[in-house]
Amino acid sequence: MVYLDNNATTPLDPQVAEKMSWFIREHFGNPSSLYPIGRQVKDLLTEAREQVARALGAQRSEIIFTGSGTESDNFAIVGALEARPEKREFITSAIEHPAVLETARYLEKRGYVVHYLPVDRYGLVDLNYLESVISDKTALVSVMLANNEIGTIQPLEEIIRIARRFGVPVHTDAVQAFGKMEVNVRKLEVDLLTVSSHKIYGPKGVGALYIRKGTAIVPFIHGGHQEFGLRAGTENTAGIIGFGEAARILQERWKKDKERLEKLAEKLKSGLEKTIPNIIFNGHPEKRIKTTVNFAYPGLEAEAILLALATKEIYVSTGSACSEESEEASHVLLAIGLKPEIARSAIRMSLGRFNRDEDVDLVLKEMPEIVARLRAISPYQPEV
After folding, report:
1. What's the N-to-C CA distance of the chain in angstroms?
2. Could you read off the pLDDT tens digit of each residue along the chain, which spans 384 residues?
3. Residue closest to 300 by CA, chosen among 380, 369, 367
4. How far is CA 147 from CA 140, 155, 209, 298, 313, in A?
5. H helices within the chain, ranges in order?
6. Is 185 helix (H, G, I), strand (E, B) or coil?
7. Who's near 101: CB < 8 A, 6+ residues apart?
8. Are 347 and 297 in contact (CB under 8 A)?
9. Domains annotated on the chain, with CATH
10. Three-state secondary structure call for residue 208
11. What is the rounded CA–CA span in Å between residue 180 and residue 203?
12. CA–CA separation, 92 and 177 (whole Å)
């Protein structure tokens, strides 16, 4: 099997699986209980919180564990806006993950004015447009750090600089950036930041929200006192322990992984460009997560390519896993200016820790043959 969909999810690292297995066998106590078996679990959760905080350059008290990256995005946006009820405008970008865009649409139904920042053909947001719409009525700006489909890295420092002039807090969805580039909340000076365990070889069902000390936010789930009183409910203890271990491993090896995988991704990208005519690369040539490779294949349907690759046990995607079942063209690819029929031909390949040279070699062997065969039977060849 060749797995090239690491932006959708990553395999569980064996060390993480081992740590979680040990925890499940040895510990069952409720971390809110005061007796020893509860306090032992509480101590282990504190250790995991410290590991995630250290990986982000944050303080331990600034990390809130959630059930997913989606929950963290919702918490950040809704919680920040409810903390500023007098401000009724929200700014985000046109190419956000559905976790943010669907929250924005929910806000519109509640009477908020939402401004969607347009992007250029590389996926970079229009800073001039941001300057024109931000005001003292703005409650929050939310722009992702790196795009999940095309990998483009946003100029977050510039976005924050503009927002600071108006006293507006900034949230960033760093789910796809975490583990693939340096994500340090102190250097970014961001107010709220979202990450997810299963994107860094940890378990599914656990995410985290960084809340900068002093940032006003309203609790998202009400009930008990867990997570500093901001997110009630008994914690997913095994998931959090796994997340902490994944973050610890990430600190040790992300730079080495990054260097190796970027070389491998460049081999994949250049090989596809050399062997397949009339393909379109999507994303910024330099300012992007380079382990994300997205190409459109005019005249074809991405689903046909995906299924043909799957017969060879090569697994890729057509875009965000959260919208994979939709028959509509990717909103990200439409936003960067692709025609719908071109956007529907796009395939995303995303490399991860367990990919090797032979994986790329197999793709470069099979992909040109698959595209040539599908084009030979395609009833149309649209103009690019």
Report:
1. 33
2. 999 999 999 999 999 999 999 999 999 999 999 999 999 999 999 999 999 999 999 999 999 999 999 999 999 999 999 999 999 999 999 999 999 999 999 999 999 999 999 999 999 999 999 999 999 999 999 999 999 999 999 999 999 999 999 999 999 999 999 999 999 999 999 999 999 999 999 999 999 999 999 999 999 899 999 999 999 999 999 999 999 999 999 999 999 999 999 999 999 999 999 999 999 999 999 999 999 999 999 999 999 999 999 999 999 999 655 544 556 899 999 999 999 999 999 999 999 999 999 999 999 999 999 999 999 998 766 555
3. 380
4. 19, 12, 18, 22, 26
5. 14-26, 36-56, 69-82, 98-109, 127-133, 156-165, 185-188, 237-275, 302-310, 331-335, 340-343, 357-377
6. helix
7. 92, 331
8. yes
9. 2-8+254-374 (3.90.1150.10), 14-249 (3.40.640.10)
10. strand
11. 18
12. 17
64: helix, coil or strand? strand
Spatial distance between the Cα atoms of 331 and 347, rounded to a whole number of angstroms:
14
Please state the length of the chain: 384
Given 322, 334, 364, 374, which residue is catalytic?
A: 322
Local structure of 27: helix, strand or coil: coil
Cα torsion through 167, 49, 34, 237, rounded to 10 = 120
Tokens of 123: 């996926």
Specify whether 296 is catalytic: no
The values of phi and psi at residue 342, to 5°, are -75, -45
